[in-house]
Write a structure and sequence with these properties.
The chain is an all-beta fold. It has no helices and 11 strands.
């Protein structure tokens, strides 16, 4: 059974915004990753214990990761989107801390396409 479900992807013009959501029932969802065409999956942002957050240099200042514990949902607010943000975005469950992460479960991914 699918344990992580992403939503909120779509097509948007450069400079626009999207909010991604990742719903889970019982897992510790803690991060967003993305895979751009022809490239390996990379960390975008993680939210760890005690509110520790980490952002990739490429998204820092534009993206915000947050979590609604009551709804068991992780969010990624993406602002000022650029063409190079085009990718499949995956949420991840596992553990993390300052400067490290350990993914145990991946979502199925949601496509984000940014165009000019």
């Amino acid at each position: 059974q699918v344990q992580l479900v992403e939503s909120g992807g779509g097509s948007v013009l450069a400079g626009g915004s999207l909010r991604l959501s990742c719903a889970t029932s019982s897992l510790n969802v803690m991060g967003w990753f993305r895979q751009r065409p022809g490239k390996q999956r990379e960390e975008v942002a993680t939210l760890c214990a005690d509110g520790i957050t980490t952002y990739a240099d490429s998204v820092r200042g534009r993206f915000v990761i947050s979590k609604d514990n009551a709804k068991n949902t992780l969010y990624l607010q993406m602002n000022s989107l650029k063409l190079e943000d085009t990718a499949t975005y995956y949420c991840a469950a596992g553990s993390c801390g300052r400067g490290w992460y350990d993914v145990r479960t991946w979502g199925q991914g949601t496509q984000v396409t940014v165009s000019s």
